[in-house]
TrEMBL record:
The lineage of its organism: Bacteria, Bacillati, Bacillota, Bacilli, Lactobacillales. One of its GO terms (biological process) is thymidine metabolic process. This is Thymidine kinase. Homotetramer. GO terms for molecular function: ATP binding; thymidine kinase activity; zinc ion binding. It comes from the Bacteria. Substrate binds at residues 167-170, 175. SUPFAM superfamilies: Glucocorticoid receptor-like (DNA-binding domain), P-loop containing nucleoside triphosphate hydrolases.
Length: 197
């Protein structure tokens, strides 16, 4: 029976590499997957799933107005739907994913972040936590210690920030996966030593 999966994890927990792996597994069996990512702006089109270790694949970039159910329905012989950056889906799009699973019987795997840099659920993640059949955490370590990273600390110009827009596009920001303790108390000296400053 087809199911809707939500696999969430902090930054750098291997979500994109897992998608590329799952897609590869289907394709070696001669089965077709529909690979989606988020356009983040209003232009749907060609996007990429990019992993930090350098592997990447083209994917269809969906914008918030795209109907994913229609997209899948109009594609031929799709064996699975794989979605990167699923945190940016709208609630309506997550409901469309449940239709893909329940009406078209196509397994659907959504990968994304759970909470934003200020520890609020992303809309897509909130809906997926409610509607997914299976929820799995992808684990990675804190950037500063051996605890599990459960939050994403945003840095702007090398400094941690605790307020701002949920989605910052085109800014000069970076993120680090961190445990709760290091979210509130990042070891900035260790960071400076690492970057050689
Ligand atoms: Zn830590």
């Amino acid at each position: 029976m087809a199911q809707l999966f939500f696999r969430y994890g902090a930054m750098a927990s291997g979500k994109s590499i897992e998608i590329i792996k799952v897609a590869h597994n289907y394709e070696t069996q001669g089965r077709k997957v529909l690979l989606l990512t988020n356009a983040l702006d209003d232009r749907s089109g060609v996007g990429t799933v990019t992993s930090r270790i350098g592997m990447q694949r083209p994917a269809r970039a969906v914008s918030s107005t795209d109907n994913i159910f229609d997209l899948v329905k109009n594609s031929e012989s799709i064996a699975a739907v794989l979605i990167d950056e699923a945190q940016f889906l709208t609630k309506e799009q997550v409901l469309q994913l449940t239709q893909v699973v329940d009406e078209l019987h196509i397994p659907t795997l959504a990968f994304g972040l759970k909470n934003d840099a200020f520890n609020n659920l992303f809309p897509g993640s909130e809906a997926l936590l409610i509607y997914a059949d299976k929820i799995e955490e992808m684990k990675t370590l804190c950037s500063f210690c051996d605890r599990k990273a459960v939050m994403n600390l945003r840095f702007v110009d090398g400094k941690p920030v605790y307020e701002g827009e949920q989605i910052q596009i085109g800014g000069d920001e970076a993120y680090m996966p961190v445990c709760r303790m290091h979210y509130n108390h990042p070891d900035l000296e260790a960071l400076a030593r690492r970057s050689g400053k």
